[in-house]
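Quick question about two entries, pasted in order.
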Amino acid sequence: MSTEETKPVAKPEPVKELPKFEKSIADKLTEKFGTKAAVEFVKPLRIRVKVAKEDVVEVAKFLRDEMHFDHAESVTGVDYPDAKEIEVVYHLGSYTDSELANQVLALATRAPREENPNPGSDNTRLPSLRDVFYSVEFHERECFEMLGVYFTGHPDNRRLLLPEDWADLPPMRKDFHIKGR
């Protein structure tokens, strides 16, 4: 009798087929932009695409004009202090194309993150998508205020929630701490 234990042989997982409709959208983006638009995932009703900040306006216009994603449902941001970047994600949808009614396309781009932010006067900047999707107007203002991302070309980079004289770190950054606690 052998003292070695026998390990069960792992069965390979079946390859999941990507949803055809969503894959067709991802394929059109890849065909048009190549590596400039990195499709990060394709799932039922969801696609995530990451682009460099230099390409975000061009990709957004293509998504609006050619792919019929006609509005941004929301805009959010994520602070990555270890990578020294802040990611802004636009969740795009369509009111006008019934095939896209339930789809959400996440368009993500990143800006450099300053250790000592001075919003509007540092390198944490992204081009605004306000002229592509009017619906981002207040969302970009919130990202400016809460994460310190200044949107170049936005007609109104002012605070929405915090006092105009706010002098602390943007409150959605991971190194923000409430004073006195």
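Here is the second entry:
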Amino acid sequence: MSKKNNPVERLLHEKPYILLDGALATELERNGSNLDDPLWSARVLVEEPEQIHRVHADYFKIGADCAITSSYQASIDGFKSRGIETDEALELMQQTVHLAQQARQETGGKARHALIAGSIGPYGASLSDGSEYVGHYGVDDARLEAFHRPRLEALIAAGADLLAFETIPSLQEAKVLFRLLEEFPEQSAWLAFSLRDATHISEGTTLVECIEALGGHPQLAAIGANCFPASIATTFITGLKQLTDVPIIVYPNSGEHYDPVSKTWSGETACTAFEDIAPEWYAAGARLIGGCCRTTPEQIERIQQNVTII
């Protein structure tokens, strides 16, 4: 794949690292939206799209180089459960890209060069039971392909600059996603796993095996992990850097524990330290850096302010 089709590579030629945005769904909650719904942030897409636009704009205003769309938990099946038929569901998926594009355009300035990453969350997210942190779905490749294809097609058609395969707990699912992506050879995607620990993805597969399987894929723009405790990020990056020359992406969560049954967060938050340890992540080899659940625009801005060595 040529350089012109890899926006991550292109942007990293212009600057030493890419500052990702932070949480979307929990930021929507902080702003008053109710996400107690199997659709999660996709509920806001249906009922309060202006709130999603607002969060994207907040991140662009503080200097984020990339916005991740609100399509993480959007699926045909999920929308149908709310009485929304396929055509409208596809339009809503495309709207996730358009909302981010509008926020980028309206913010102007440096934001005009920011990327829009179309979020492809895992199959398990649609089950609304925390499966994205476990894997082992017990479904075949055909089921995964049928689930992911419509959203992938919709986000590409809407003009996403690249795709974000994120919180992926299983190598099977990652392989399926890149097999689908091959149907769109001009597109690229980053791959962010969910982690069991610093050397294994959630289902237990080693990072070594994941890199052997997908690390050389020509459409892979970056590889790493998201929604994991920041406390293991440096160890994770250091180990991954020994396995690949592909740009490494990390966007941890706040360090709190999520209960998929009660849909609540508990424990001590560690995200206020992001700005202090982000320079370590860069030094270890990360080149796309941001935050996931329970992180805020203020914390992302502090990463930018503190990583002055870059």
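Reply: The chain has one domain: 3-306. The domain at 3-306 is CATH 3.20.20.330 (TIM Barrel). Hope that helps.
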